[in-house]
Amino acid sequence: MERHRDDIGARTGMWLFLFTEILLFGGLFMLYSMFRMQHGAEFHKAAENLNRIAGTTNTLVLITSSLAMALSIAAIRRGRKAASVALQATTVLLGCVFLLIKYFEWSTEIGRGIYPNSPALLKLDHGEILFYGLYFVMTGLHGLHVIIGISVISFMLVSTAKGNITSTDHVRLENSGLYWHFVDTIWVYLFPLFYLVT
Amino acid sequence: MNESGIQPGFYAAPGSRTGIFSWIFSTDHKRIGLLYLFSIFSFFAVGVCFGLLMRLELIAPGRTIVGPSTYNAFFTLHGVIMIFLFVIPGIPVSLGNFFMPLQIGARDVAFPRINLLSWWFYITGGLLALLSLFTGHGPPDTGWTFYAPYSIRTGTNVVLAVSAAFVLGMSSILTGLNFITTIHRMRAPGMTWFRMPLFVWSVYATAWVQILATPILGITLLLVIIERLFGVGFFDPAKGGDPILYQHLFWTYSHPAVYIMILPAMGVVTEIIPVFSRRTVFGYKAIAFSSMAIASVGYFVWGHHMFTSGMSDVARVVFSFITFIVAIPSGVKVFNWVASMYKGSIRVDAPLLFVLAFIFLFSIGGLTGLILGALATNIQVHGTYFVVGHFHYVIFGGAVFAFFGGLHYWFPKITGRMYNEKRARLAWLFLFIGFNALYFPMFILGWEGMPRRYYDYLPKFQPLNVVSTVGSWIVATGLILLFANLLRSARKGAAAGPNPWGGTTLEWQTSSPPPHENFGEIPVITQGPYIYNPSKGKGHGTA
Fold this sequence. Notes:
The structure holds 2 protein chains of 2 kinds. By secondary structure, chain A is mainly alpha-helical. Chain A has helices at residues 7-38, 40-47, 52-77, 81-111, 119-122, 126-162, 171-195. Chain A has a single domain, classed as Four Helix Bundle (Hemerythrin (Met), subunit A) (Up-down Bundle). By secondary structure, chain B is an all-alpha fold. Helices cover 65% and strands 0% of the residues of chain B. Chain B has 16 helices and no strands. Chain B is globular. The two termini of chain B are 25 Å apart. The chains are: A mainly alpha, B mainly alpha. The A-B interface holds A 1, 4, 6, 8-9, 12-13, 16-17, 19-28, 30-31, 34-35, 38-39, 116-117, 122, 125-127, 129-130, 133, 136-137, 141 and B 107-108, 110-111, 114, 173, 176-178, 180-181, 184-186, 211-212, 214-216, 218-220, 222-223, 226, 230-234, 239-242, 245, 249, 517.
């Protein structure tokens, strides 16, 4: 019995999985809209303390990584294995740069004594406590997804290099790309909601 | 072939693994279905024990066998185990896994390895839930709903129990997306959407609810864990948060979850009725669409769990109204089932007995649901035993009775042997009488004002509580009879043959038990499934 292969089915499954991921973040976006409605002014005030340059840089880094990912799929479709591997490596690298910048941002906040349940944070208004709570939870959950994405793409990179992902059989790479674009898209919403609301 | 003339089928599947490893690492949908069947009924047994202990405590006012905090742990664990480990995975993962691919003429599900992974997630979640009993500062005592702020503040082992529910949610999501993809991509040639058996339709509707609702539970439970570990404050008014927000998030999942429990059961009922009435289903499309209608409208009624929590009058009226609307597709199904039996050549074997009990008990559960969905009466009975009675009529009387019906109906296909009919009917009788003795008094107790979730009650409530506790013993006897009969028949029953009931859906076309990869040759479908008039054809197979 030959191996059952259904690329459309595999893509269907991936899209369904991404729906569930959108809903997972959707719960948090709902909390954000609720609290923002109640504490609009304090959200503006708190957002001024975030580093807009770091946020913008990270947006550019992540969008560029998504471009590299899309190009790596285009490359493997044309059978250009080396180019695909190099582009996937670029994606992974840019993902790591994103995490690094995020790490420095978090460190700055925590260095100022701003982290969930910290004495300095609890002295602030309710709206600011909630803003920073959402900031840490949402960027934290997003960061976790970036880490998962980097692991998955690293795995694909090895598979491509070994010749298991080819110009005729690359649905796994496409699905990993879909996942990475999803991670990117979530950030595209997080960026204005946290950095640009001032 | 053994001495009784039964082919080993998939039980003798070729493979390098032997013994238990040929099961727990199998990607065969039939083996995974049976793995799930045994796992969920093992947890069911644990849940039943907690239920029996609670009823025993309530046989008399005051402390009978346990104190208040132990009783709180009992109802929490009874709820967590029965909801997350038994009835939500329930029919889809066991009977659905086994029979959905057979009914659409597929060799397996779309993602067999993800199917196995979901079972491993299930077992991990189950073990975490059990671990929460014995570690930390005592078993969780929040109720299965984990309401904030208590779930954030209690010293008991909430994090582990919540993590268990989170992992079980991932298992549920994976099953859902697997089944949707399977039904979209793997139907046999000629199996159009409106030629699918209605059980497949109901599993399909359920799968959508699983993937669209479960992530909300996931994020909510994650937030409970984050609150407990880091104190972010989303549900804590002292930090600007709102505990009612927790209730909204929780019920946004947990109301649709009720349809995850009941929709597949309705599918089983729809399979059994035509076979035992020898008539086609009345209103095929109405039943198919009502499944989808229940699945979609079910998202917009969660507020009826919170009528006394603090909501605007407009919101309450709207939620109440939409709640009434859900009764319409449910009513469509009940009338169609009854109409399907009209002028049929009815044969009342155990599967149909369970189905008839389902229709009776589910109707009581559904009608009392309208009492709860109406604002004025809800205020009177909110948080009382009336709710407990209603819920168990729908879920135990509905989902679980249909599950038992399905187990008997498909038992010959799973094992290749017949169960003992006389003992099955006896077990049914015990269950039906015991069930009503156990839960009907709760409606009266609730109406008179007995609150739920207390180990103690006013002396005037005692007579009905005694009836209820005695009922729980009758139910337990019925359960023992039922499972003893099935387990004994699995080894000693007479050979069943491929199609003992004269069913017309595809699973009855292959041998019993089905061979590895289900069909020698994938069948081609030319008409709808339920055709019992020989002049009009044979449905999907040999009627």
